[in-house]
Amino acid sequence: MEFSAEFSLVAKEDSKYLRKDGAQEIVERMTKLVYNSLTSDGSYSITLSTEDFLKAIDSGKSEGGSQGRHWVLDPINGTKGFVRGDQYAIALAWLDEGKVFLGVLACPNLPLTSISGADRHSPNK
C-alpha cells in the first residue's frame, strides 16, 4: 500500500516530535497498533514499518472531508501538560469515506500503576 497516493493527512504538525530521541518506543507501539488494527480482519494486507508509519504522517496537509481516506493526527494533545512534563496524549485516527475506521490514543506519561488497581473498587465486582 502506498500511503502518499491513497491517503491525505489532516494535522497541526508533522512527525518531527515522533522522530526525536526517546520517542522510538511509542512510535513502535503506535505502528504495531495501527498495523494490527488494519490487518486484524483480513481486509488489508500490508507491511508497515515505523518509517512507513512516520512517512504516512508526513505525507502532506489536507482539509479532510467526507470523501477519500484521511489520517487525522494530533501529536501533542495537551501542550501545556507536555511542556510541564505532565499528561498529554498522541491521537491518531483514520477516516475512510467520512467514517472513523481506526483510532489510536497514546498517553506516554500515564502512570499505569496508579490505575491498575482501579477495578478493585468497581461497584460492578
What features would you describe in this structure?
The longest helix is centred in the first third of the chain and has 16 residues, at 24-39. A 4-stranded mixed β-sheet has the order 1-2-3-4. The protein has 5 helices and 4 strands, in the order H-E-H-H-E-H-E-E-H. It has helices at residues 3-6, 24-39, 50-57, 79-84, 112-115; strands spanning 8-11, 69-77, 89-96, 99-106. The model is unreliable at 1-5 (pLDDT under 50). With 125 residues, it is α+β, with helices and mostly antiparallel strands.
Q: Main β-sheet: number of strands, strand sense, barrel status?
A: 4 strands, mixed
Strand content: 15-25%
Structural class: alpha+beta
Number of helices: 5
Compute the separation of the termini in Å.
45 Å
Work out the number of β strands.
Answer: 4
What general outline do the C-alpha atoms trace?
A: globular
> Roughly how many Å is the radius of gyration?
16 Å
Regions with little confidence, pLDDT below 50 for 5+ residues: 1-5
- Order of strands, main sheet, comes to 1-2-3-4
Q: What number is the mean pLDDT?
A: 80
What is the N-to-C order of secondary-structure elements (H for helix, E for strand)?
HEHHEHEEH
Residues in helices, as a percent range: 25-40%
